[in-house]
Amino acid sequence: MRQTITVRILVIGGGGREHALAWKLSQEAEVICAPGNAGIAEDVECVSVAAHDFAGILKLARDREVDLVVVGPEDPLIAGLADALREQGFATFGPGTVAAQLEGSKAFAKAMMQRAGVPTASYQTFIDTQASKEYVRKMFAEGKQVALKASGNALGKGVIVCGTLSEGLEGIETLKALGEASRTLVIEERLTGREFSLLTLVGDHGIYSLPVVQDHKRVFDHDMGPNTGGMGTFSPLEWLSADIVSQTEAEVVTPILQALRDDKLSYRGVLFSGIMVTPDGPKCIEYNVRFGDPETQTIMRRLGPGLADALMSASTGGEITPIPVSADHVVTVNLASGGYPGEYSKGLPIFIGALGARVKLFHAGTALLNGQLVTNGGRVLGVSAVGDTLAMARETAYEAIGQISFPGMHYRTDIGA
Ligand code: AMP
Ligand code: GLY
Question: What are phi and psi of 279, to 5 degrees?
Answer without folding.
Answer: -60, -20
